Amino acid sequence: MPVLTIDGRKIETQPGKTIIEAALDNGISIPHFCWHPALSVAGNCRMCLVQVGSQKKNAEGQPETDGDGNPVIAWIPKLQIACATPVTDGMYVDTSGEKTTKATNAVMEFLLINHPLDCPICDEAGQCKLQEYAYRFSKGESRFDELKNHKDKRVQWGPEVMFDGERCISCSRCIRFAEEVAEQPVISFVQRGDHVTIETFEGTQFDSPYSMNVIELCPVGALTSIDFRFKARVWDMSFNDSICPGCSRGCNIQIGVRDNTILRLEPKTNPHVNQYWMCDAGRNTQYAWVNENRISGAWLRKGGTLQQSDWKESYSSFAASLKQFSGKDVMFILSGMATNEDAYLTQKLAAHIKSTNVVFIERNDASFGDTKLRSADRNANSNGMAALGIKSLAPTALASALQGVKAVVVVGDEIIRGNEEIASAVRSLAFVGALSFNHCQTTEAAHAVLATATYAESEGTFTNLNRRVQHFTPAIVTTENMRIMGMKMSRLDKFGAHNDRWTQGDKRDCKQSWRIVQGIANELGAGWLYKSSEDIFNEMALTLPAFKNMSYDMLDTYLGVALDKGHAPEPVGIIYESHTLKPN
Amino acid sequence: MNVTTNTESQRLNFWEKLYLPEIAKGMAATLLTMFKPSMTREYPEERWEPLGSYRGRPVLVMEEEGERCVACGLCSRVCPALAIEVQADETLERDKERFPKLFEINMLRCIYCGFCEEVCPEEAIVMSKDYDIVFHTQEEALFGKDKLLVPVARLQERLEFLRQYK
Question: What is the dihedral of CA B2, B6, B8, B9, to 10 degrees?
């Protein structure tokens, strides 16, 4: 095991690691632009220059020390790049000395020569690596009086990514990403020297299903999201951790919210699930349905039309409807997006009314799956359902299954989806109770519609395709939760008054499914007293062997824990964040 | 024990103790002031025109091809009273790709500190000379782009004042 000394600190590391990796493993950050742990080493930004040396040896071959017993170090005359220099035993590295600081200053000055002063209109501003380093490592002055280079701005690389040539610092992160991770090598440097820019090859476009990852990967604002462009400044948004519900991978995400509206989703590092990435489909399709077309409040069908009523009345009416049927005539259909807690409590309600007919509908899409992150199973929580013993049902078998029952309770799913056969089966049922997010065909046919909270408004857990249970927290305010309840807040959320637009937003009257289920169950005499998702999860941890020893705190600490592994969670490892909004 | 010295009767001389000459002096002063230039004006018929250095309500500079503002939101960020709301949008028609789709200042919140003007990288928001801002409802106090945009010609004095201190 090589032992090296970085800034006077002795560090033991594995052979074959580079200085920057060894430093990162030990919490020392060496400034860098082009290096990224998931990509190959390019070594072209020169930001990670450090002084490297070893202890001098005297004529007898013994290590030399000065009068105080400190080692005398022979520094290599030229600085070395930490990202491409492998560690050796007895190496001395200096990352903060005069020589290194001078070199870092010079590199910053050089990178800023042709970088435009675009910050006020740049979407990256506020979480820009160049901005951050300009504050930390630059002198704040440029000696460059000449005209800056002009390059193409607003070049569309593909359907999702916009490129600004002037802002680019030619770190080649995007090129390496396209080649190594997205495996669509269509972008490359063209021209030379200060005229260097990046282009897509003629006749191609960068339209990989993972193309938008280059937006976060880019250390500057050269690559921006066409979907997000200019929607909001990052410091006006709050970012809360969540899990993408788009497929069973369960990519860790952050939900960017302003004005109580989701503006963007971005990946959050989880070395065990999605590394640093997420797919474009997840980013682009998993927020519009949270923002738009939402049901608010509780609705009961009276005389053929849905009429708004209060929650209490809806619960008792819902319960009264369920009472008319014997347990075996009631079917519970869970959404594949229902959390473990929702599913557990729905199952418990079914057991309470002596129904064993609890299912979730398979949502398989072979065209969506790939060998990277995207999974053909579009249900976010099918493994969680399986762990709870809930059976899956193919959409083709739904219509016949519905014919065998008299009442159905749909928890958070749209079951009709334009299928006439299912629609007529649903219409012939004596009672349809829908706990829904959006207005859809199911709510049109339902006798009672109760607005449920989406993943962005809920706290709960999903179990992903690798049976990893992951905890997520709400990002949006509803009548049920409040932003002060542990949610991260932007400045506007913190200081806004009640009559400000941004604190009002569109505050929906919806509840998490388990809370509605509990309301109905209590009308049926269950007498449940769950106060939060955590109460339910703690009960699951006690009663279900697969969830044994788990708790929300544990899931947060270990970034998710696999089922049956509550006694021995995997260690988290080092989480690398290239550049993020600070402070958040 | 309180000993009262320097009482009025000790301070005043004989003529002053009589009062009457003093009244005549006061009347004379009033009479003389009547012929001096007036220090008050009959607002609102007669209005005061402030200097360029005056910080009246913040306005947006309007140029020929539209507003100068690029909707960077720095004014909104720096505003200590959170009075400014900016929503940016993209345009392909103009040179500047970014413009404010919505720009609102809540004049009930504005404290006329001028930080927005100071932070603006485009000299697009400046303090004007308007000082009498009135409204009847809270909604009226939200000044949108229609009320905020002022032609650059009318703001010359302020812009020149700002340049002196650049």
Answer: 100
Q: What CATH code is carried by the domain that includes residue A193?
A: 3.30.70.20
CB of B76 within 8 Å of a chain A CB? The answer is yes
Are both A69 and A157 inside the same structural domain?
Answer: no
Contact B85 A121 (CB under 8 A): no
CATH of the domain at A354: 3.40.50.740
Name the closest residue on chain A to residue B104, using Cα atoms: A501
> For residue range B48-107, what is the model confidence (pLDDT) as tens digits?
999 999 999 999 999 998 899 999 999 999 999 999 999 999 998 888 889 999 999 999
Helix (H, G, I), strand (E, B) or coil at A235: helix
Give B-chain residues touching A230 at CB under 8 angstroms.
71, 88-90, 98
Q: What is the per-residue pLDDT for A584?
A: 57
pTM for the model = 0.90
Point out the residues of chain A with pLDDT beneath 70: 483-485, 498-499, 501-505, 584
Q: What is the pLDDT of residue A504?
A: 62
What is the pLDDT at residue A497?
72
When divided into structural domains, chain A yields a total of 3
Please give the Cα distance from B143 to A68 (Å, whole number): 71
DSSP one-letter string for A368-402: T--SSS--SB--TTHHHHHHHTPEEE-HHHHHHHH
Q: What are the backbone dihedrals phi and psi of residue A10, each rounded to the nearest 5 degrees, phi first?
A: -80, 130
How high is the pLDDT of residue A449? 96
Q: What is the model's pLDDT at position A158? A: 95
Average confidence (pLDDT) over B116-132 = 94
Confidence (pLDDT) at A61: 85
Residues 42-71 of B with CB under 8 A from A: 70-71
Q: Is residue A582 part of a domain?
A: no
State both tokens at A81: 């790049």
User: Quick count: other Cβ atoms within 10 Å of Cβ A31?
Assistant: 22
Cα A197 from Cα A190, distance rounded (Å): 6
Beta strand pairing status for B149-151 and B58-63? parallel
Residue B99, min C-alpha distance to chain A (Å): 9
**pLDDT of amino acid A66:** 86
Task: Return the number of CB contacts < 8 Å for A and B.
Answer: 40
Q: So what's the architecture of B58-164 in CATH?
A: 2-Layer Sandwich (3.30)
B17 touches chain A (CB under 8 A): no
Look at the block and give the residue holding tokens 């075996």: A328
Q: How far apart are CA A533 and CA A529, in angstroms?
A: 11
Task: Count CA within 13 A, CB hemisphere, residue B35.
Answer: 4
Residue-number span of the structural domain to which A374 is assigned: 298-456+511-536
Let me know whether A16 and A99 are in one domain.
Answer: yes
The secondary structure element, H or E, covering residue B62 is strand B58-63
Contact across the interface for A501 and B88, Cβ inside 8 Å? no
Alpha carbons A51 and A95: distance in angstroms, whole number: 7
Gyration radius from chain B CA atoms: 27
Residues in A lying within 8 Å of B, measured between beta carbons:
117, 120-121, 153-154, 229-233, 235-236, 491-492, 495-497, 499-502
| Domain extent listing, chain B | 58-164
8 A C-beta contact, residue A249 and residue A273: yes
Q: Given the structure tokens 């490129």, which residue do they identify?
A: A163
Q: What is the mean pLDDT of residues B27-33?
A: 94
B-chain residues near A500 (CB < 8 A): 82, 106
Of A121, A231, A501, Cβ closest to residue B72: A121
CB–CB contact B71 A231 (8 Å): no
